[in-house]
Write a structure and sequence with these properties.
By secondary structure, the chain is an alpha+beta fold. Helix content is about 15%, strand content about 30%. A hairpin with a 5-residue loop joins strand 5 and strand 6.
Length: about 220
């Protein structure tokens, strides 16, 4: 498997949600799966799935994949006008630690352009138009950054460390969806978040729980 350059996150590496979705499908696609990123997923590099691990050509472990018990991590939905209003105040439009991110980067012309803004109760919400090509990793990607932006603060960037997702259905290309996220706990540099993706009819398409890791201060 290869993470193509257009699916990048932080400079030189793959977006965590997209990469995790690709790894999950390659290793175990039969039930709730958790992916732990051990190294930034390299771009345009052949990766192999071996005994529940994703390894690079040098044998270094990039990620670990394991099946987990069924879980609930659903963040309540909002209507699309509310999500659109929240997106207008998305802090990443003016100060983004990774502006080329495939999911939430305003400088990626080929990205998903999911811009999660804060709601009064601390949740995030964003509209999401499904791209022309939709695969399970698309849902994993959509569930990634809206959770992270529930904790990202100016001068305090976070990156995805671990994510478990449940994909109940794929949106159709061009469908207008809504994504929500929320912080549910954390300690030290770790933040625990949940996120959910809803279709245009309000149906739950997927949800995720994730651990985000704050990067050391520069």
């Amino acid at each position: 498997m290869i993470i193509e350059s257009r699916f990048h996150g932080p400079a030189g590496s793959g977006n965590g949600g997209w990469s995790a979705g690709i790894f999950a499908a390659a290793v175990d696609d039969r039930g709730p799966v958790e992916v732990t990123l051990r190294k930034p997923p390299p771009l345009e590099t052949p990766l192999a799935a071996v005994d529940g691990e994703v390894r690079d050509p040098d044998g270094q472990v990039i990620a670990q994949v394991r099946r987990v018990e069924a879980f609930s991590a659903v963040v309540p939905p909002v209507d699309r006008p509310t999500a659109e209003a929240a997106a207008k105040a998305y802090p990443g439009l003016t100060a983004h630690p990774f502006p080329g991110c495939y999911v939430c980067g305003p400088e990626n012309p080929d990205g998903l352009w999911i811009f999660p803004g804060r709601l009064p109760d601390g949740r995030t919400a964003a509209p999401f138009r499904a791209p022309a090509d939709v695969v399970p990793a698309t849902v994993w990607a959509a569930l990634d950054c809206p959770g992270g932006w529930a904790v990202i603060a100016p001068g305090r960037p976070y990156v995805l460390g671990r994510i478990a997702a449940v994909v109940t259905a794929l949106p159709r290309p061009g469908e207008e969806c809504v994504v929500t996220g929320a912080m549910v706990g954390g300690e030290g540099r770790k933040a625990e978040v949940h996120s959910s993706l809803y279709g245009p009819d309000g149906a739950l398409l997927g949800y995720a729980r994730a651990t985000w890791i704050a990067l050391p201060a520069a």
